[in-house]
Amino acid sequence: MRLFRILIALACVAAGAIVGALNRDLVSIDLAFVRIGTTLGVAVLVSLLSGVLLGGMAIAASVVLPLRRRLARLERARREAGPGTSPPLVSRVEPVPDAEAR
Known about the structure:
- This protein has helices at residues 2-22, 40-81; strands at residues 26-30, 35-39.
- By secondary structure, the chain is mainly alpha-helical.
- A two-stranded antiparallel sheet has the order 1-2.
- Helix 1 (2-22) packs antiparallel against helix 2.
């Protein structure tokens, strides 16, 4: 698995180097308060990287953090229940009748 991650990382670095080398045109990015002059390849790579980071933070905020809070709540309830007992992980749910019983 570690070798696979290293190979993926090297492939991404190589793809970034190729994109940077093939897009050498100069561009100017105006951010209202500052103007940045760079090459097109660097601008594309920075925008892709910032999109990945913003997407990762959005997923972390909307999925990971609520799941961590839920896990902490369940662990706290388990500690309060005492040794040898475990609180139910889900509330009681009525069984669904079989389709054949209808």
